[in-house]
What we know:
CATH superfamily of chain A: Sodium/glucose cotransporter
Number of helices of chain A: 22
Helix content of chain A: 55-70%
CATH topology of chain A: Sodium/glucose cotransporter
Strand content of chain B: under 5%
Largest sheet of chain B: 2 strands, antiparallel
Strand content of chain A: under 5%
Number of domains of chain A: 1
Radius of gyration of chain B: 18 Å
Mean pLDDT of chain B: 91
Largest sheet of chain A: 2 strands, antiparallel
CATH architecture of chain A: Up-down Bundle
Strand order of the largest sheet of chain B: 1-2
Shape of chain B: elongated
Distance between the termini of chain A: 72 Å
Strand order of the largest sheet of chain A: 1-2
Low-confidence stretches of chain A: 27-37, 571-576
Radius of gyration of chain A: 24 Å
Largest interface: A-B, 55 and 47 residues
Number of strands of chain A: 2
Oligomer: heterodimer
Structural class of chain B: mainly alpha
Shape of chain A: globular
Amino acid sequence: MDLQTLTFIVVGITFAIYIGIAFWARASTTSEFYVAGGGIHPVANGMATAADWMSAASFISMAGLIAFFGYGGAVFLMGWTGGYVLLAMLLAPYLRKHGKFTVPEFIGDRYYSKAARVVAVVCLIVASVTYVIGQMKGIGVAFSRFLEVSYEMGLIVGMGIVFIYAVMGGMKGITYTQIAQYCILICAYTIPAIFISLNLTGNPIPQLGLGSMMSGTDTYLLDRLDQVVTELGFAEYTTTSRLGTLNTFVYTLSLMIGTAGLPHVIIRFFTVAKVSDARASAGWALVFITILYTTAPAVAAMARLNLHDTIQPAGGQNLVYDERPSWFRNWEKTGLLKFEDKNGDGRITYNADKATNEMVKVDRDIMVLANPEIAKLPNWVIALVAAGGLAAALSTAAGLLLAIASAISHDLLKGIFRPDITEKQELTASRVAMAGAIGLAGYLGFNPPDFAAGTVALAFGLAASSIFPALMMGIFSKRINKEGAIAGMIAGLTITLLYVFQHKGIMFIASTSYMGDMKPNWFMGIEPNAFGAVGAVFNFAVAYVVSMMTAEPPEHIQHMVEDIRVPAVADSATGH
Amino acid sequence: MSDNNTEIRKAYWQANLRLMTILLSVWFVISYLCGIVFVQELNAIRIGGYKLGFWFAQQGSMYGFVAIIFIYAKKMAAIDRKFGLHD
């Protein structure tokens, strides 16, 4: 059976499973599901959170970026896991105690202000739409490969499927579907990694294989990789930090803070049964995320090694272009892989020298999907990877779209501007908002500002600079008032957006960048993707200064802060 | 009663902040110090094929994060009960 047919079958089966579970779960219970995770064990909730959290950026894009960044790729690994520590200690238990359903709702309550709620909605929408652009890039790459069409065509098909998937709606809220999605995506990620690790090192555990010797030799895999890439003029794999220590530091911090500031993740902790469960749930979510995240560096290093070994077999001559393997031909069709025979010898030269390198385009986002083919794994494994990538991208895209839709219909319309609309009108508004968000993100996805993971990193920066500081100060300080919080959110978001837009273009349209994406123009050498942490510091500082210059929050707000700090409910009645 | 309760809450919050400070210090050391700032120095040490700094950045820090959250959850549950403020 050919690969394309097999892929359709595997993807079809997994979709049937999700839809089947959704119907089964719907039929067997009624309103309990909307009170959400209540009866669900923290382990199950953690697994569902992991599926919700890991997106096209984690699944499709991240290992490809690490493969080419080497050590520097660690910003994604540490950044997208370390944030759970902040979430578990600084936000989740207290937000759970407060017991509201959206992030803007909490900000509106704590800062006793509708204006604060509106500002929070704006911040949420800006960050989430940027995040969806990243998902669209990943979905476009996946569909273009498996339908064997151009990236643009793949993106259009992807937009259609995301729309249907998101409008089917409630599906996302059903934890069991997400558990199934987690199982599929983690199998799809680890099975090829186990095969490849076995092939290269004889050790089936990729995390250990990465630190082992190559089969049949006494050379460590990482040493061999360092040697292969440096001989071709690339930077050493295990030590290159891309843009220096300060940038790496700030980038990691930005992703961690952003993780703890993204509304669709925070919401997961509003629905656990108890405050103590919110803490444990964050731990379990991280366990399931870490399984993929510690595998990713092995996938990255092994994919890079296999890529070079295919094109430049050790001791042999470079690959003859006409004899290139089928994965090479297939990815060329998508336009994401390009070869140009500069020296006219009919062979592929791949090195770090721009003048002689003939692999003129190797899109980082194709690496994870191409990896099993490069390693010559069986077709069913390749088909499984496709299904896993789509599960990751679709579940997160749908979750984000729901967050955007609820912010517009629930927080803005119902909560503030049109409190009298009916439930049906609210639902219609949310569908329109969802369609609008898909259209906008898809349109911007034709020329994404960066690789999928880079685009998602921008979204984290925006969340880090706007939402996280307002939430954290709302819990840890009784003195921050509404003036301070509003000024802080606006200042943090504005400075980060200005910095990103001036380098990446207004609304990420590259031709409108007013300073160019040029290193000499970067503030202290910090790249736009990493700027969120600076924006967050700015947010904290502005909020503090403005609060000190204005009146302290009313007494009932200060009591509210005291209440959310303790898990016990009874004390709120006797405490004051 | 009201004063007493305020005292208990204040002590509880102090205990929470103390635990949080310790664990966030560990969080900072394993990621930002071992994985970024002192990565080159640690790379001089090797465990198997891994340079130690590289290992912290791409493996070790993540295992540490998981451990930190579970330690926090367990210790906080004990503190909740000690102050009689559990839910």
